[in-house]
Task: structure prediction
Amino acid sequence: MRTVFVNIGWASVFILISAVVGIILISASTMVIPKLLDKLTPRIDEEKEIARGNIAVAQYFGRVAAACIIGISIIIGAAIIGGIIFAVS
Result:
């Protein structure tokens, strides 16, 4: 019975560490992705185009940024689940 509580404790530790690392990675990616998109599209100034009301640029920029963040979130979620499975087994 004691091993069960030890495993639950380790699973909780893995979850907390993974959550903190995940929050840091997602926060960092939300700062890096817009800069990366600026580098990938050198002829387009997204900020000026969005300020001028160019909806297509705004949608492209938002969708690409959102897709990157969702992809990173899926990877982090898999890491959290892997940590839980490792701690329980």
